[in-house]
Amino acid sequence: MKKLILLIAVLCMISISYAQVLTLTDVPADVSKVFVKSHPKVTLVEWTKAGDNFKANYTEDSTYRSATYSSKGKITETEKQISVTALPSAAIKYLNENFSDGYAKKTLQIKSVKGKVTYSVNIKDVVLLFDSNGKYIKPTI
Fold first, then answer.
1. How far is residue 47's CA from residue 68's CA, in Å, rounded to a whole number?
2. Which of 26, 35, 89, 106 would bridge 22 by S-S if both were Cys, CB 3.0 to 4.6 A apart?
3. Rounded CA separation 72/70 (Å)
């Protein structure tokens, strides 16, 4: 099981490394217009491209966030960095039972365009996913 989780974490890191960092001129006008309209106070944005989607990484209200858009400017997903204590209690319980000596490096709340919420916790170089109720989502290959 540990080898499986490690394999998934490595694959995630590799896929992230293939994301292209873009300049604003590389981002379709429809995408950048939607972002600027939604986030008028954000002045520093790092754009990346993964597949056909464009992802804006930025800080707003002192919180790391990201928004993923289709090439037509339709938002598909948002991410917001949260504290571990903001996780559902079932997720906190899982972390305490399985990673009591670990420190969460990054904890994100991920929301799909349809409103589905999941949580991602990067701990001990492993990325764990939880559903909206805090139930651990086992990776599938």
1. 10
2. 26
3. 5
Q: Read off the pLDDT of residues 83-137 as tens digits, 9 standing for 90 and up.
A: 999 999 999 999 999 998 888 899 999 999 999 999 999 998 889 999 999 999 9
Cα 88 to its chain centre, rounded Å, is: 17
Q: Tell me, yes or no, if the pTM score tops 0.90.
A: no
Beta carbons of 15 and 38 less than 8 angstroms apart: no
| Of residues 35, 41, 106, the one with CA closest to residue 73 | 35
Nearest to 87 by CA among 121, 62, 115: 121
Q: Pairing mode, if any, of strands 45-50 and 53-60?
A: antiparallel
Phi, psi dihedrals of residue 41, rounded to the nearest 5°: -90, -10
From 122, 45, 41, select the one nearest 81 (Cα to Cα): 122
